[in-house]
């Protein structure tokens, strides 16, 4: 696991996500830290993390419900869900 995808001290709520979701949380945090808020499709994240787009979408939906970790919002649906990811305020 590269430093970019390694979870950085996950919060208790984020730790309750499946172990397979932890690299996604680290990936999203890293991108938000480096780029600020961004839009992304599940399939592009899946390519970077060696997950399926379906797995990424399911984990993103669960992250939407978390009050900790990166803020995730389903933004649009065109050939797959587009997600808006930002830092929590």
Strand order in space, largest sheet? 1-3-2
The CATH top-level class label? Mainly Alpha
The termini sit apart by 28 Å
CATH third-level topology: Arc Repressor Mutant, subunit A
In total, the number of strands is 3
Shape: globular
- SSE order, as H and E? HHEHHEE
Mean pLDDT across all residues, rounded? 85
Helix content: 40-55%
Structural class: alpha+beta
User: What number of structural domains do the residues give?
Assistant: 1
The main β sheet shows up as: 3 strands, antiparallel
Strand content: 15-25%
Structure description:
The protein has a single domain (12-86), classed as Arc Repressor Mutant, subunit A, CATH 1.10.10. A three-stranded antiparallel sheet has the order 1-3-2. Helix 3 packs across helix 4. With 89 residues, it is α+β, with helices and mostly antiparallel strands. It contains four helices and three strands. The longest helix is centred in the first third of the chain and has 14 residues, at 22-35. It is globular. Helices cover 44% and strands 19% of the residues. The chain has helices at 12-15, 22-35, 42-49, 53-65, and strands spanning 38-41, 71-77, 81-86.
Briefly summarize what is shown:
The protein is an alpha+beta fold. The protein contains 4 helices and 3 strands.
Task: Summarize this structure as a short list of keywords or feature phrases.
89 residues, Arc Repressor Mutant, subunit A, 4 helices, 19% strand, globular, disordered N terminus
């Amino acid at each position: 696991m590269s430093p970019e995808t390694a979870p950085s001290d996950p919060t208790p709520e984020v730790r309750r996500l499946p172990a397979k979701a932890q690299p996604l949380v680290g990936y999203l945090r890293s991108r938000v830290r480096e780029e600020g808020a961004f839009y992304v499709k599940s399939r592009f994240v899946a390519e970077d993390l060696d997950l399926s787009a379906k797995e990424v979408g399911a984990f993103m939906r669960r992250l939407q419900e978390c009050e900790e970790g990166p803020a995730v919002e389903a933004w649009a649906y065109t050939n797959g869900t587009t997600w808006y990811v930002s830092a929590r305020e």
